[in-house]
Amino acid sequence: MTAPAAPLPRKRKLKLPPRIQRWVDDPNPILVKELRSILRTTLFIRFLYLSTGLVGLIVIAFGGGMAAGSFTPAQAGEFVFQTFFTTALAIICLVAPAYAATSLTGERETGTYESLILTGMDPARIVWGKFLASYCVFSLVIVAFSPIVGLAFLFGGISPWHVLLGFYGLLLVLGPAVALGVAISARLRSTRVSILLSLVIFVPSSLIATTMLTVFGELSEREWGTTMDGPFWFTEALASRFLELDTFLLLGVLPLYLAGMTVWLFLASAIAGVRPAAEDRSTPFKWWTVSAVLGLIITVFGVTMLVDTHNMGEAGVVFAGLSSMPILFFTLIFMNEPPLPPRLVELRRAGQGRARRLFGVFGPGAAPTTRFAAGSVLVASLGVAFAAAAARYWMDPGSTTHARYDAGIVCIGAGNAVVALFLVTFGGYLRVVLRSGVASRILSLATLLAMVVLPLLISVILDPDSLGDLDDNPPFMVRLSPIMHLILGVEIASDGSARRLLEMAIPVVVYGGLAMLFWGLLEARVRRIRALVDMQRADREARAEAAAASRPSFVPPPSEDAGDADQGAATEEPAVVSESPADAETTVAGTVADTAGDIDALARSKPEPEPEAAEPDTVERRAEPDASDSDAAESDAESDTDLVADLDAQSGAPESDNAPESDNAPESDNAAESDNAAESDDAPESTDP
Q: For a FRET experiment, which of 100, 205, 253, 675 has its CA 20 to 30 Å from that of 633?
């Protein structure tokens, strides 16, 4: 007898983190649906082989021309490498944002957007599904391009690390391109306008970024000794100097951080566009702003540390001045906040704890969001100044030039803070007054530009030679310019005249005073709007309660049989009798018989015919009486009684004692009388009038 076979060992299930396991068990339905629909279309297959063939022809044409010239094989291989990745980058920058721009506008035009919203999925899940679907599609396109780069290995001069890092750069650029298209698609309704706007924004931006990257390649050739030209020179630097701190931070961490923050911002905008107006839209932007401010401070600190100690002071001043651009962007984000938070947010906040309610100080609404934006720009301005100075003290603690560079950085940081604070409060006030975020942003930027240009023009008109000594003795009008702190900070850092820091008192007082003025106006207007809304809400609730209290409720008149039955049931004493099954069957049979008899009686009963209409001059049809006017209701009731009496007199029937006398009776004069005539024993049989 053979022994039983041993059971097969169970395969140990891979234990994943809870979040990843939830993604595996419940994948995004939008992602699955989009991938299935895209990969099954012939249009995608055609685009795949046509684009791959186009890239191959371009690479072969330029590679053959290089091979026929007087270039070494290594130079030809580098040129083929640059040609391939530059062509792939151009295709991605042209097609990816345009394709992603149709993700949500296509749903609107085909009439499926409402169905998508009614599925109950969170807007964030919808947006992430659209983004990941487009990103995966173009990742497959990049994979389809990959065999072509093998031509570069035929010439030499290229390593596999160069190719892998080049594809890493393409995937890094693909994220912002797709996210921008999805964000624009969530805000617009027309597919054509969405495609056009995405291309107008991303294509020039990518050209500028590629040009700047090529210029940095020339700097790296001088500083790091790289030999590769073109926008993908960073592949050589990362392949040869990856473990160096400056290369790792500048070419590894910093691009990844910038691309991630850009994607986060665009997707937050898309989620806000999909989310209904009755919900909170500004909180995702606030979380992004917190991360961006911290990242800006850390970036300035890290990049300043990488500069040579002899140039670290000037670099800190330059970085503090360049930080005014992202700080200006922070002020523009929150200029589209409505005066009051959504009603749902207020109701949810009422049931939260005290710690959660404290965040309502910076919660949705114009006034709380302005407080948050003001705090963000203040932290960003002063934090960048502190980071630039701290990096210099960290790397060169014994320098004798700390005082003048500190004075210059403080001047720039204080100027950035007051100017940004003015823009935040001014833009928030315009948003509440104009009720348009686009108008508030445009007017804020136009005001800032006018405050930069007009003082210069006025100074030139008054004195044509006034701008000749702008550094040492600027005109009074120029001192009011929002860029005066930048000029003054650079001048203090260059000549070491820390006493000129007192000149910053004029712009600080002017822009700080304007900021406080518009902040007070904003808070006052929001309070007035809040009082008005509360008053209107209370008035609506009071009117609704009054209408509900004064509205008569319809109660059908009871019949005599039902009344006698109720009285008989009231006089009888209740008794608890235990019935046998036979008695129970008899009781049920009797009840069924009584019900059948009632149905037959109702079927045999005939409603009274309607009486003949009176003369037009004696009987008139009137509107239903208003329940809120008691006098009118009483007069209408009296006229109804007279009208019933006239009709009875014409028909020859006596008045019924059970005729309804209240206003709660229905308007039909015939229905109540026929019911009473049929149910009353004293009433005679009705005859035709």
A: 675
CA distance 467 to 171: 48
| CA distances in angstroms from 180 to 187, 418, 478, 569, listed in the order given | 11, 31, 39, 77
Cβ atoms of 30 and 125 closer than 8 Å = yes
Per-residue model confidence (pLDDT) at position 219: 85
DSSP-derived 3-state class of residue 110:
helix
What would the two tokens of residue 572 be?
């009888």
Tell me the per-residue pLDDT of 478-521, one tens digit each, with 9 for 90 and over: 888 898 888 888 888 887 776 777 888 888 899 999 999 999 99
CA dihedral 277, 283, 284, 290 (to 10 degrees): 160
Q: How many residues does the chain have?
A: 689
CB count, 10 Å around CB of 272?
A: 22
* 672 in Cβ contact with 557 (< 8 Å): yes
User: Which helix (DSSP H) or strand (DSSP E) does residue 673 occupy?
Assistant: helix 669-679
Distance CA 551, CA 349 (A): 35
SS3 of residue 215 by DSSP: helix
State mean pLDDT over 556-579: 49
Tokens of 328: 């200006």
Distance CA 108, CA 182 (A): 13
Of residues 519, 524, 525, 293, the one with CA closest to residue 427? 519
**Mean pLDDT, the chain, whole residue set:** 79
Nearest to 448 by CA among 470, 432, 426, 431: 426
At position 384, the amino acid (one-letter code) is V
- Cα–Cα distances (Å) from 113 to 6, 96, 103, 473, in that order, read 56, 22, 10, 62
Within its chain, how far is the Cα of 462 from the centroid?
49
Q: Is 688 helix (H, G, I), strand (E, B) or coil?
A: coil
pLDDT band at 560 (very low <50, low <70, confident <90, very high): low
Q: What angle do CA 492, 495, 496 make, to 5 degrees?
A: 65
C-alpha distances out from residue 157 to 58, 161, 224, 232, 487, Å = 20, 12, 18, 14, 47
Query: In the structure encoding, which two tokens stand for residue 63, read together?
Result: 């590679």
Q: Collect all residues with Cβ–Cβ distance below 8 Å to 167 and sequence separation of at least 6.
A: 142, 146
pLDDT band at residue 343 using 50, 70 and 90 as cut-offs:
confident
- Radius of gyration from C-alpha coordinates of the chain: 41
